[in-house]
Design a protein that fits this description.
alpha/beta; seven-stranded mixed sheet; five-stranded mixed sheet; 14 strands; about 30% helix; elongated
């Protein structure tokens, strides 16, 4: 377990892969009364190390969201420690950890306080509807879950994920006194304002590529647009990029900048999009 600051320790789960990078980061806060953020997957060695580090001092188990890389170990750790489970449960969209059940539902602006620290919950929908970040006020550390990751863009997964929400949430975070970002995957990110601005700029640049591709290709579906809009990424990531492309198209359609074209009944035809004025 790595000591990141006087109040924060990190243990990375051994579940590294193309999507998680080195693995899922679990964060322990405090020294007397502890909070655990994102206990991670059910891997015995990881859970045992967390339990050893917590002893009988764990008060809260928090999750940033309920995707399977982040929350499944919560139940076992709660059973062993009696810690209170706090988070936001959403309807299952086929991507959720259905084992996670809260004892207390999280809300935007909620404060969790001990004599050592104050943790503020910030609702940041976009990657998924129930994504929360947590700000450790004493040190300006933002625990970002999958809203921000080191080294890669976050996948937006419709329908619970929403590109408009993602950009809006990222812009909202610019108003908080963040000193460093502690992501769900990867290393600490310094210069948080620059990171947040770059994320928004990157999404808007990708959106421009969507519009340019529709200009060049005319009416197109996801599979035709995908290699054009994401020509710059590892081909192994195209399946995930297809989800973010769909999210971009839904955002542009909602804004009236493109329109959907379906020649056949929805159950039998493929969705295509074209520029709104074409």
């Amino acid at each position: 377990m790595k000591q990141l600051s006087p109040l924060v320790r990190c243990l990375t789960a051994p579940n590294g892969n193309l999507m998680t990078g080195p693995g899922t980061n679990s964060y322990l806060l405090g020294s007397e009364k502890l909070a655990l953020i994102d206990p991670g997957p059910v891997i015995d060695s990881h859970i045992e190390q967390l339990l050893s580090a917590c002893g009988d001092r764990l008060c809260w188990i928090l999750v940033t969201h309920t995707h399977p890389y982040h929350s499944p170990a919560a139940r076992r750790i709660a059973d062993c420690t009696g810690a209170r489970l706090i988070g936001c449960v959403m309807p299952d969209d086929g991507h959720q950890d259905r084992t996670f059940q809260v004892e207390e539902s999280l809300y935007h602006g909620q404060l969790l306080e001990t004599p050592e620290f104050t943790l503020e919950a910030i609702h940041t929908p976009g990657h998924v509807a129930n994504q929360f970040c947590y700000l450790l006020r004493e040190e300006g550390v933002l625990f970002s879950g999958d809203h921000i990751m080191q080294g890669s863009s976050v996948v937006i997964i419709p329908p619970s994920g929403d590109m408009s929400d993602y950009i809006c949430s990222t812009e909202t975070l610019m108003n908080y006194p963040i000193q460093v970002i502690a992501p769900g995957h990867g290393e600490l990110l310094d210069e948080p304002q620059a990171v947040l601005q770059q994320i928004v700029a990157h999404r808007l640049a990708r959106e421009h590529k969507v519009l340019q591709s529709l200009t060049d290709l005319g009416e197109s579906g996801l599979d035709r647009l995908l290699p054009e809009v994401y020509s710059d990424i590892n081909p192994d990531l195209l399946a995930m990029a297809r989800l973010s492309l769909w999210a971009h198209l839904l955002k542009l359609e909602k804004e009236g900048r493109i329109r959907k074209c379906i020649d056949l009944h929805w159950a039998f035809g493929e969705e295509h999009w074209t520029l709104a004025d074409s």
